[in-house]
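Cross-posting from the modeling subforum.

Setting up a comparison between two proteins and wanted a second pair of eyes on the formatting. Protein 1 (sequence, then structure tokens):
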Amino acid sequence: MIFYTVCQKLAHNPSLHKYRAEQIVILNDKLQRLESRPVAPPRQTSQTSLILPRNPLKERSDKEKRKEIENLREQNERLTSDASDARRRTEAAVARTRALERDNKELKLKMGTLLSKMETDDKLIAALQDKKVKFSAVRRLLMFIVCIY
């Protein structure tokens, strides 16, 4: 039950992919230990072996072991797929971050260009306004001279 809860937490929180990888390693170790346990062969007391009744407790424990091994394999597969999904999502997020950073850099360059153009335009406008003022003054002076003569 505790392990099932841990699996649920892992499934709902993809940021724990490192923890998932550790769980996969632990499950693989448990699986290897269970598979490496020797199963004792049936005992024979003499050449005329007696047929002993099967021990239901031993059979049940073997069945339970097999079931536990199968459950561990399934959990291992689930955790492996969850870890690969988390890795894939992380790689996608990294790629998206890189693309956004590149776009941000391009936009900063364009904004710098626009700001410098605005500054140049402001200088041009100020120069044109100065010319206009001077031209207006010259025009008034000419009009005054024309009116006098």
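Protein 2 (same layout):
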Amino acid sequence: MNCCNEYGECKQGNGCPARCTPLNQLCGASEVPQPTHTGERQDEPLSTWEAIFLYGAIAISGISTLLVGAGTLGWLYFKHWS
């Protein structure tokens, strides 16, 4: 059944089956897909080497960010403010 025109606008009004949404009771509860997951994470914990690599990369990126910021401020201070 095609109740929409070529622009996707419904021609039959609010009772058109193409307008059904999961919140609309006209579609029926059997047509609404039900979630199959419980919402809990099923990931395995990190191994020791994975944790060392991950936290090492985070630490290196944080220290690098601080050094670049301090270098920028030092350059600005000695170049323009002193």
